[in-house]
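I have been asked to look over a protein record a colleague put together. Thanks in advance; the entry in question is below.
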Amino acid sequence: MKEKIIVVGAGHAGIEAACAASRLGAEVMLITLQLESIGQMSCNPSIGGIAKGHLVREIDAFGGVMPLAADATGIHFLTLNRSKGPAVRAGRCQNDKGDYRNFMFRYLEKQKNLTLYQGMVSDIVCQGQKITAIKTENGETFNADAVILCGGTFMGGVIHVGASHYSAGRANEIADTCLSKVLQNLGVSLKRFKTGTPMRLHRGSIDWSQFIPQPGDEPPQPFSQRTRRVLKNRIICHMGRTPESLRQIVLDHLDLSALYSGRIDGIGPRYCPSIEDKFVKFTSRTSHHFYLEPEGVKCAEVYVNGLSTSLPVWVQRKMLSVITGLENAVMMRPAYAIEYDAIDARQLDHSLRLKGINGLYCAGQLNGSSGYEEAAAQGLLAGVNAVLALRGEEPLIVKRHQGYMGVMVDDLVRQGVDEPYRLFTSRAEYRLSLREDNAHERLSEMAYSLGLLTASEYKEIDVRLRRRQRMLVALGKMRVDWQGNWVHAAQLLRRPEVNWQVLKGLDGEGILCEEQLDESDIAYLEANCKYEGYIRIQNQRLEQMNHLLRTQIPKDLDYKIVPGLSVEMVHRLTIHKPETFAQASNMAGVTPAALNALRAFLQRLDRLKK
């Protein structure tokens, strides 16, 4: 009998959760407040970015939907940090918002084992600590072996524009007014977070000549290795700067902002601040960049990236009036802030299951994260783990050294968050190995073993990986003339001033042209050569850390004799009695300083034994 799984919410997290579970053969119902809004890009019309692009590649390695949708509906493709090292380069594309939504709806309609349903969940039914069903507002009951909650900003959502506020999960869409109480009744503690979105302007009312064009890359690079279509840049984005007079308008009307007037209790994202936050927190800066990003090829709306605000509409119009090129801009949708409920993610285990409640999983902004990509990655993991748990199999846990998915989940469930979480490459201690170009090498074998990739998909990936390995071997053997000296190509490529194009110019025999290589292949080869020594050291440290994590803690250890442990840490460790250092490191509330003290003590014990 097939496992019955219900996914609540059809945003980016819900889509990946439903598709992953159904690909594994479970019977899935995806229930959402409004079918027409499936896959809606609530904020910016783009996919990818710093670390986010890495996540999209990892989702592709697991056979997810987002990278396919991004490529199919992309209208402007760009590689960020191109001038920097391969580890921090990241793909980003602007998408046609309507086409993206339509792609997702059509994809879900065709997905086997998946049913779409419009409704609001009013209750989650448990027998003991096991999920058995959900109830909807219209009185229906649907049995379920597992439920995955992907509510986004809809759970208890309230929109703020100046002094005006109203219940909504997104502009002109109803909020979910039930799930917060349901979760609290199950003993789940909630937090209140805030995010926002900028105004949308009519394309024809903008004087584009006043802004700096930001064309896409040629040729555009796809997110998915399954993409077959030729990608094209179909729009140009533009960059502008706010004048000092706009800063004064914002500061003069700060008391009218919902954020600064005290009407918003939720905590906003540090790394995607409103324009009010920018001027208040960065007092030395009188001007900030913003970007004009068309929301589609035929769509008239333009997203003003960088001018998110909760100021009244009339103040928003005044702000636009002082920006050269936007003096006559027609506002089609005003900016607004939105408050919503999220859970304390420390109540989850690493499979994204709520501790103590079998069969209940959470993904996306409900877990305190922000961003489409973070939500999609969590949704995919939750969907897979819901099925694996019902089959009595080990969960899919991506480790920190294996992927950005693992970094994100580990950050969320071990540390929790006090503000909406955003992923950055700086959060990953193994980022030299966690690059966009090697996502499939890291994760696709795992995905294939689970059944997330078909045999033909995996074979195609394997062919590409073998081609890369052949070229690495060739680089190790090949010698070129560099300033009068014959050196190995791989060794030469380690130099900062030497890249693939320079190397090709030195290749008199044309060895480097024997294989058909795209930009991702070239980035992979460059990175493996340039980072070889660093990665070797990193792997040695990883092995040392793995050894430490496996280290047994004496059962009768008196934590009072461990130098450097506070009274609180002694109390926590004494109560929980972790058997290994790994268990101690996963305990809620144990500080990094305490772990360092325990590590030093255990290593000293180990040396004494030897």
